[in-house]
Amino acid sequence: MATEPLDLTPEQRAAEDRTFRRGAALAVGVVLVAGIVLGFVVLPVVQGASVGLDAWSAICRAIGVQPGTPIARQPSSEAAATPVSQVSWGPATLGALRNGNVARGAQLSRVCDACHGAQGLSSDPQFPNMSGQTAYAIYKQLHDFRSGARKNYLMSIVATYRSDQSIADLAVYYASRQALQHGSIEDPVAANLAVRGDPARSIAACNACHLGNPGAPVETPNLIGQHKEYLLNQLQAFAHDTRHNDVYARMRTISTALTSDEMERLAAYYAATPRP
């Protein structure tokens, strides 16, 4: 018959406790060392070898004494920051347009007549017609020329010396003028892109934004009656990323998906479309 073990003396219990603590500490130490070796030696060496990084550099990067990571060398970029539109459609901007002075805008427009024509109707197709354009679109483009978000040698100089209110006055003046009317043309390809777009190529219907429909981005210009040459030049500028003041890169995305023939057709279609 088995007998019950005798009670341990305090000295025996202390010795047993020390043995347990040493065993637990040893177990923790083994796990810790294994984790360090795995995380700072094994994985960096294996991953670094796949990208041509020597073992010593991989380990140094892993422990933080060299820049980069043990997985791959870090890329560097010399690209300069690209300015974007700084127009915000908040109370200040909307208030400036709401309080725009048409008479003062007419006076300010005299410096614009040489290129954009009297009453904002340009005789040179490389310069856009301004009359009948939305005040929001004119304000944004002039503001972008001033800030550098849009580049043009002449317009950048002219806009540099205009205050926000002067820009608003010009915008409301041209918006109050009568737009040029043309006869329409039949082009099913351009009409389909204008009305339906091409979802398969991420091309939205042009009319969704460019006819001043409710819910459309407020700053998008009305294309109807604009010069064909000017419209084509702007589509090409967006496609080549030489113009990049479109919000969320909408026009750059669409224009890069259009063919050269479609750009030509759309430019001619909108230039010939009469105002509703």
Describe the protein in words.
- There is one protein chain.
- This protein is an all-alpha fold and 276 residues long.
- It folds into 3 domains: 33-68, no CATH class; 91-175, Cytochrome Bc1 Complex, Chain D, domain 2; 188-272, Orthogonal Bundle (Cytochrome Bc1 Complex, Chain D, domain 2), CATH 1.10.760.
- Helix content is 53%, strand content 0%.
- α6 (135-147) packs across α7.
- The longest helix has 40 residues, at 10-49.
- The chain is elongated, with a radius of gyration of 34 Å.
- The mean pLDDT is 86.
| Model regions low in confidence, pLDDT < 50 over at least 5 residues | none
Task: Give the CATH H-level superfamily of the largest domain.
Answer: Cytochrome c-like domain
The proportion of residues in beta strands is: under 5%
How many β-strand runs?
0
Q: How many whole angstroms does the radius of gyration measure? A: 34 Å
Fold-level CATH name of the largest domain = Cytochrome Bc1 Complex, Chain D, domain 2
The CATH architecture of the largest domain comes to: Orthogonal Bundle
Instruction: Estimate percent helicity.
Output: 40-55%
Q: State the shape.
A: elongated
Main sheet? Answer: none
Question: What is the CATH class of the largest domain?
Answer: Mainly Alpha
Q: What is the string of helix and strand elements?
A: HHHHHHHHHHHHH
Number of helices: 13
Structural class: mainly alpha
Instruction: Give the distance, in angstroms, between the N- and C-terminal Cα atoms.
Output: 111 Å
Residue-averaged pLDDT, rounded? 86
Keywords: Electron transport, Heme, Iron, Membrane, Metal-binding, Transmembrane, Transmembrane helix, Transport
Domain Cytochrome c: 100-178, 192-274
InterPro entries: Cyt_c-like_dom, Cyt_c-like_dom_sf, Cytochrome_c_Oxidase_Subunit
Protein name: C-type cytochrome
